[in-house]
Amino acid sequence: MWGIVGQRACRHGSSAMSLQGTRPVIHALRSFSTAAKEMTVRDALNSAIDEEMSADPKVFLMGEEVGEYQGAYKITKGLLEKYGPDRVLDTPITEAGFTGIGVGAAYHGLKPIVEFMTFNFSMQAIDHIINSAAKSNYMSAGQISVPIVFRGPNGAAAGVGAQHSQCYASWYASCPGLKVLAPYSSEDARGLMKAAIRDPDPVVFLENELLYGESFPVSAEVLDSSFCLPIGKAKIEREGKDVTITAFSKMVGYALKAAEILSKEGISAEVINLRSIRPLDRATINNSVRKTNRLVTVEEGFPQHGIGAEICASVVEDSFEYLDAAIERIAGADVPMPYAANLERLAVPQVEDIVRAAKRTCYRSSSLAATA
Amino acid sequence: MASLLRNSGKITTTAGLIARPGFQSGRGFDLSSFSGGAAPFSAPRRFQTTESDIRVDSHCYDDEISQKFSVLGGKVPYSSGMRFTSELPEEKVPCYRVLDNNGQLIDSRNFAGISKEIAMKMYTDMVKLNTMDTIFYEAQRQGRISFYVTTTGEEAINIASAAALKIDDFIVPQYREPGILLWRGFTPQDFANQCFSNKFDDGKGRQMPVHYGSKKLNYFTVASTIASQLPHAVGAAYSLKMDGKDACVVGYFGDGGSSEGDFHAALNFAAVLEAPVIFLCRNNGWAISTPASDQFRSDGVVVKGQAYGVRSIRVDGNDALAMYSAVRSAREMAITEQKPILIEAVTYRVGHHTTSDDSTRYRPLEEIEWWQMARNPLTLYRKWLESNSWWNDEAEAELRSNSRKELLKAIQVAEKIEKPPVGDMFTDVYDAVPSNLFEQEKLLQQTVTRYPQDYPSDVPVRAVPSS
């Protein structure tokens, strides 16, 4: 349901605040509409890629197991059969190789979608992502553009250990020339994937393995093949007035759960789904903090030099006088991800961590330093 | 003491155009006296059983049923003798050559021929390239440009390969191939503008000198990373293949670049994808101060082709006609058969690695001088032109003098042209200028205007309209 409202807001260029005025309309629509269709993130990604490949013959897929195996996580299911081996390429095991080849194809005018089985493996190709893709338009003074999408699961899954669990959002988001997207819901997945494929710049598309199977309601508008979300715009998933919580990918779900718990304790949290890590929607974040005066940033990745750090800097630079409390950063533990289930649970943020942090900003509980 | 030869005391040359090893050699060319001592290892030895012949079972091929499921894709002979393939072939892969040391055709049957027009342009461009290198190198030494990379000794590879290709063929260079741009029409002024990073530089002053690029001339912008361009070449070739174009891609690299992971991924992948790409290795014996003997232990780079299922040839890189002939054929094969080809052009890096290097510190002067004198690509080719009465001393003097004048003038002009406007710093990061860069640029313009004493006077502050 939010999808339709979000789209209207985008088209009319109105700010998030105008959503208030359209609320009654949504309720009216709801009472007349049939049950909203649900779609998994997996299907959302598959349909988005399918539609874009159908619309533009220059779009093609490349990666390990994307074809015959239907995709390591079945995201590219059915595409080999539909488009043939010319457009869905099963590659040898060489991230550096196929990433470089994708970049070369993009230099020459094709639009590759390169899949990394997880972004942990993208490190083997990071020279091509940064030095060949991100910087080429600049270094060639606009003569070489790189309309490529790098996609794959990012961040922690479940029980996969240190070399399969790192979040690369801050690594890629620090590099000018790249765009970095992180969808949460199926609507995000469809709209942002389409935007990424259509974008003339290189886009790093960070999915999440645990979200692939989750279902979200999608409106007719989202299901339309022309649906597209703007890059660089965050989405306010839940409005609130006491504290702003920013999150992306799987943590959006956690933040929403935390907001639910907080509301029972009288704290109204505003949850922002970043959607776009680079460019970061600083305007939406700052507007929200100016309204609530408190901020909790949430991410799964390592804390140092993370997304939360950049958001803190932005808010301190632009909205310092509006802060009533120190900003709280919730991030993963500063250790390589352990495997044992109990340790893994302790190494990633949980809903309770977000709730406690929000309470600390509202002075409802003392800071950890004070109790030490 | 560094070895002159690529891991050998002997490279056989052959006048015939061969794409596979095993051809009987013509005349041997023994340069072991220049290695200044024993070659780092002895002649290849084969590990043999004590019996004189390897016994192979009569029913030596796999039976029908297991053949179907063979991971090796077909018939594989079995052998009851345990035989390790030697690390080096019995004989080094022969090196294709058309002209002998006196610039005479060795065997006219094995050379397809060349029109006088192209032959002449090849020589004049080789001279222009050589002159450009001398003058720009001097300019760097005088402090007028910060950095330069010469191509000295590799003029034949540059110009002859360019001559054998067509304008639609995409060039993916390393950084020692400006000759291809020269052949295709990049002017001395274009080269100078890039080296001086002035406002007429096509690259908008974004890169160090010699990082040329031209979309118009189908020459990808030079990047500093080594061998990263090889997978790019394969990707671009795949694009050509999908479009069904009558063109190929040529990716250049050096002996050092063949050690990079990207080289292996590119060759392997190109073979699997059946991409129309030519991999052209300039084996010039040196990667900065690392001699080829420290770079790999194979028989050069040519043998690596077969390892990936890529057709390959070794060519004398200092023989312009051999280069022309080989690249012509390779192009034909790459396009009509849609497959990659590997060419190893054996040559010598006469100059230093770059202006930041002094190669006399790690190799003997006699070695450099020998190559400069005995196997100079310009001298060799000139002898052939003169034997056809197409060239003479007068023409040489005139060409050299005119080239020198033109290049000196280009430098003088380039030096005086303004640097790019400050606004150019913020464009092309993305397709459209994002808002944060808009603001940064405005802020910078304001600061420079307000505090001119803190900024150099030759930085133009005019705002550049965003696209």
UniProtKB/TrEMBL annotation, chain A:
Enzyme Commission number(s): 1.2.4.1
Localisation: Mitochondrion matrix
Residues annotated as domain Transketolase-like pyrimidine-binding: 39-214
GO terms classed as biological process: pyruvate decarboxylation to acetyl-CoA
Presence of keyword Ribonucleoprotein: no
Highest taxon in the source lineage: Eukaryota
Necessary cofactors: thiamine diphosphate
GO CC annotation: mitochondrial matrix
CDD domains xref list: TPP_PYR_E1-PDHc-beta_like
Subunit (UniProt): Tetramer of 2 alpha and 2 beta subunits.
PANTHER family named among the record's database cross-references: DEHYDROGENASE RELATED, PYRUVATE DEHYDROGENASE E1 COMPONENT SUBUNIT BETA, MITOCHONDRIAL
Name under which the protein is recorded: Pyruvate dehydrogenase E1 component subunit beta
Organism: Linum trigynum
Taxonomic lineage of the native organism: Eukaryota, Viridiplantae, Streptophyta, Embryophyta, Tracheophyta
From TrEMBL, chain B:
EC number: 1.2.4.4
Gene Ontology CC: mitochondrial matrix
Domain Dehydrogenase E1 component: 125-420
Cofactor annotation: thiamine diphosphate
GO molecular function annotation: branched-chain 2-oxo acid dehydrogenase activity; metal ion binding
Biological process (GO), any one: branched-chain amino acid catabolic process
Protein's UniProt keywords contain Mitochondrion: yes
Keywords assigned: Metal-binding, Mitochondrion, Oxidoreductase, Potassium, Transit peptide
Catalytic reactions of this protein: N(6)-[(R)-lipoyl]-L-lysyl-[protein] + 3-methyl-2-oxobutanoate + H(+) = N(6)-[(R)-S(8)-2-methylpropanoyldihydrolipoyl]-L-lysyl-[protein] + CO2
Domain of life, source organism: Eukaryota
Localization (cell): Mitochondrion matrix
Keyword Metal-binding annotated: yes
Family in the record: Belongs to the BCKDHA family.
Subunit structure: Heterotetramer of alpha and beta chains.
Listed name of the protein: 3-methyl-2-oxobutanoate dehydrogenase (2-methylpropanoyl-transferring)
Biological source species: Linum trigynum
